[in-house]
Amino acid sequence: QSVLTQPPSASGTPGQRVTISCSGSSSNIGSNAVNWYQQLPGTAPKVLIYSKIHRPSGVPDRFSASKSGTSASLAISGLQSEDEADYYCAAWDDSLNGYVFGTGTKVTVL
Amino acid sequence: QLQLQESGPGLVKPSETLSLTCTVSGGSIRSTYYYWGWVRQPPGKGLEWIGTIYYSGSTYYNPSLKSRLTMSVDTSKNQFSLKLSSVTATDTAIYYCARHASYSGNYGPTVPFDYWGQGTLVTVSS
User: Fold this and answer.
1) Measured between beta carbons, which residues in chain B are less than 8 angstroms from residue A95?
2) How far apart are CA B59 and CA B72, in angstroms?
3) In whole angstroms, what is the distance from residue A46 CA to residue A59 CA?
């Protein structure tokens, strides 16, 4: 059972802004950087954002992240059909001494 | 371009040991700035970190798997491996090998995975 909790689903129409939350604790989100991954159907995950502001080359700036206390969020602005995927937050957990993933959120473009 | 490729049996019997190898090409596994890991995903479910290893052999294991898990590295072959003992049906999953990124002086098991293998499905069944 994951220590990072995300809503199971989120949706929006093309062009809308969608936000995904990730709730953790002081030992993970509260004290370490949060990473966000996108997993398109049938493919390996791809890191979207790490340490809040770093975006690998090729990741559009429509994706942005924020963190407050023990919660984090990923925002997708100008939603596009190709954004339909599963999204996972992740962070190092100091108590578990391990890397933990969120429960995952499936984004649907209506 | 860095590439990672998982290999190993696709079917393992219950109570036996699951063994997988990840072959790294396009880069050296001996790099000071990179750690290497395994992540699995049961069919239709979420991601679970299994463990991470450094070329020196230092390891970090998921506490829930630690008693059954052994990871190793073979720098001469540019490979790293995992062995998971006493498997049950709950170990059925797609297993991915991946590299932890290095950025702005940050590297280690706490940073995200930037390169992934394509994944290999391992089914535990008699």
Assistant:
1) none
2) 8
3) 10
Contact B124/B89 with Cβ under 8 angstroms?
Answer: yes
Question: Which pair of tokens denotes residue B70?
Answer: 């052994």
> By a Cβ cutoff of 8 Å, what residues of chain B touch chain A?
37, 39, 46-49, 52, 60-63, 96, 98, 101, 103-104, 106, 109-114, 116-119
Nearest by CB to residue B111, choosing from A39, A50, A96, is A50
Enumerate residues 6+ apart whose C-beta is below 8 A from B67: none
Quick: pLDDT tens for B59-72: 999 999 999 999 99
For B4-39, how does the pLDDT look when each residue is reduced to its tens digit (9 = 90+)?
A: 999 999 999 999 999 999 999 999 999 999 999 999
Looking up tokens 């979207």 gives A48
Q: What is d(CA A18, CA B37) in angstroms, rounded to the nearest whole number?
A: 31
Residues facing B25 on adjacent strands: B3
In Å, what is the CA distance from B84 to each residue of A102, B81, B119?
A: 23, 10, 16
DSSP-assigned beta bridge partners for residue B12: B124
